[in-house]
Amino acid sequence: MTRELIIAIDGPSGAGKSTLSRRLAATLGYINIDTGAMYRAVALAALRTGTDPGDEEALERLCARLHIGFVRSEKGERVLLEDEDVSSAIRTPEISLLTSRISAVAAVRRDLVRRQRDMGEEGGVVLEGRDIGTVVFPHAEVKFFLSASARERGRRRFEELQAKGVDVDLEQTIAEVEARDAADTAREHAPLLQAPDAVVIDSTNLDIEEVLEKMLEIVESRRVALRAGR
Ligand code: DC
């Protein structure tokens, strides 16, 4: 075992994947790859070019010519589409909705999965998404499946929106989280599935530091086992 590890983090939205993936990568000195941001970047490009989200061939052509990258700056990790910083532009509700459609298109998934494999195959990476441990890197050395109850994830989302000054209803936000879970699990291409060998961490009653500590312990014990040839 000469290269560093490939670490996969999957789970539903609102389970804390982004924060934990970033923190875990920073602690280990690994590269962090937010695969959801890549799907979002394709959705933004589709919107801007007027590409029909139902036209798979057009989406395939669009993907083939896009440059999507990540850079680290003093503002944190940034997402680039061509040479433009689109980190904020990909986080609007309109793009979230469109991404959910676009990420169900097989040609888009093929293109992005290939890019993710190219970016991660050397190891020393934490990839975060929905299908990392099942499809992108089924042989990842460490796989986490982060979860939390729909109520708790809805509550976190509600607090996030309120902090931004958006007026929302708690029960309504929880219902939206449940509806999105159902759609993500039922879709034909790359539904949200738990890899059989993933370590499941339920963060309903844990804070970020507690989850991070658990993850670091698991990574360390995996490293020891790999060094011992197990
Ligand atoms: O994690 P996120 O909210 O940024 O993800 C945006 C969308 O992309 C969401 O609808 C799920 C989808 N996605 C996916 O299908 N596969 C991934 N590996 C990552 C995200």
- CATH-assigned homologous superfamily: P-loop containing nucleotide triphosphate hydrolases
Bound chemical compounds? 2'-deoxycytidine-5'-monophosphate
Mean pLDDT: 93
CATH level 1 name: Alpha Beta
Total domain count: 1
Rg over CA atoms, rounded to whole Å, is 18 Å
Number of strands: 8
In percent, how helical is the residue content? Answer: 40-55%
CATH topology: Rossmann fold
Beta-sheet strand percentage?
A: 15-25%
Order of helices and strands: EHEHHEEEHHEHEHHEH
Number of helices: 9
Please give the largest β-sheet: 5 strands, parallel
Indicate the structural class.
Answer: alpha/beta
Strands ordered across the widest β-sheet: 2-6-1-7-8
Shape annotation: globular
Low-confidence stretches: none
List the helices and strands and how they pair.
Elements: E1 6-10, H1 17-28, E2 31-34, H2 35-49, H3 56-65, E3 68-73, E4 76-81, E5 84-85, H4 93-102, H5 106-120, E6 125-129, H6 132-136, E7 142-147, H7 150-163, H8 170-186, E8 199-202, H9 208-227
Parallel strand pairs: 1-6, 1-7, 2-6, 7-8
Antiparallel strand pairs: 3-4, 4-5
Helix pairs in contact: 1-9, 2-4, 2-5, 3-5, 7-8
Bound molecules: 2'-deoxycytidine-5'-monophosphate.
The site of 2'-deoxycytidine-5'-monophosphate has 12 residues, from helix 2 and helix 4.
